[in-house]
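User: I'm putting together a small comparison set for a docking exercise, and I want a reference complex before I start. The sequence is below, and the ligand is flavin-adenine dinucleotide. Could you produce the 3D structure with the ligand included, as structure tokens?
Assistant: Of course. I'll restate your input first, then give the structure tokens for the complex.
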Amino acid sequence: MYYDLIIVGGGLVGAGFAAALRDTSLRIALVEAKLPSQNDPRLFALNYGSCQFLHHLGLWPALASYAAPIHQVHVSHQGRFGAVRLRREDIHLPTLGHVIPARFIEAALNELLTTLPNVTLYRPAKLISLHQKEGCATLLLETEAGEKSIQSAIVIGADGTDSTVRSQLNMATHVVDYQQSAIVTRTKLKRSSSHIAYERFVDNGVIAMLPLTNDECATIWTADNAVISHLMSLSDEAFRQALQQAFGYRLGRLQSIQQRHHFPLRMVRAEKAMEQCVLLLGNALHTLPPVAAQGFNLALYEVAALVESIKEKGNLQQALLQTQKQQAKSIDLSHRLSQLFSRPSLLTSLMLPLGMLGLDLITPIKVKCLKDLMGRAGRVPPLLLSAGE
Ligand SMILES: Cc1cc2nc3c(=O)[nH]c(=O)nc-3n(C[C@H](O)[C@H](O)[C@H](O)COP(=O)(O)OP(=O)(O)OC[C@H]3O[C@@H](n4cnc5c(N)ncnc54)[C@H](O)[C@@H]3O)c2cc1C
């Protein structure tokens, strides 16, 4: 079977890319190894542009009741006076972004995908091998009905951190293991978080408390592996107390916490984005530590730019070449991020990571150095702009 485009990996990035191409005439195959699940515990801080992307896909009505707006980011250091604040007024927008549980985004995207006539879903189907010859890629899939072969002149590898696409093409990676992990949980508050996203640098790591709906907040505590395993071993109440003591009382008395999940912090960066007719996207291209709260935001930026380029040029190969140049900047950005995380300074620790929510939109001098740091000056793709802009 031949397609105009094959996307390997139907995670948020692959599915988001396929959905964003719904009004093109491209015949697309989307290959995903797993069946949809509803148990992803991640809670995403999405910047304004990423939320607009979901709006453009028509997903916002399904997500709005789970999305908590961020009006202000507040970054502080335990034991130091003062804080860095970034307010929505600074960027003249209604919000800096929203916090949305990942499972709702996944469910809304999956529902949309099943309605798209130009997308053929292979699911569950696992990529086994990929060969390129004379501008055509042949992919061998393992499906429930046995092995299946599909072909295309263009393949997108959106199959995550341990990408099979990448390894099939022997594309080299740079890996940084921080020997750190992050605990993700939900904390029940006695009062509203007032739409403020807090980030606090404490003795043994970084705590982010992000607004959620129903007077809850998303808690992400990042620290060395030994600290995290100790925190994971505590009872819920002992963890709540440890969190209260480290974070303080900016959100009042923390009432209770829900189940804790932990994730290792790893940076995986492909050394190049493209190999003949294959382009990498999302975690397959660069997996950022969750503390950056940027992986999906950055991937949607690339997806939006690629979709715009496909629609403008009407030629997939040319669009890929143009995107590859932009991705060189993204790879550079993830490289800069890895350096920041491995050598934190007062300046960078005060600005990272939540200050980056406004990355694509902020113009004042206050964050000019942040933009310079990230190398992200330039035009914002239309899919990330609100309808009126
Ligand atoms: C704890 C945590 C918190 C985070 N918080 C934020 C945040 O606040 N903001 C933000 O922007 N980002 C955040 N991120 C980053 C975000 O999760 C990633 O950027 C995003 O999920 C990347 O999606 P992806 O589709 O590229 O990869 P994945 O989600 O890994 O999807 C890859 C897909 O490919 C499939 N696959 C793999 N191999 C094959 C194969 N051989 N054949 C077929 N299919 C295959 C997998 O089943 C999977 O569904 C966070 C990450 C973590 C871990």
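Residues 316-342 form the longest helix (27 residues). Confidence is low (pLDDT under 50) at residues 343-377.
User: Thanks, that's exactly what I needed.
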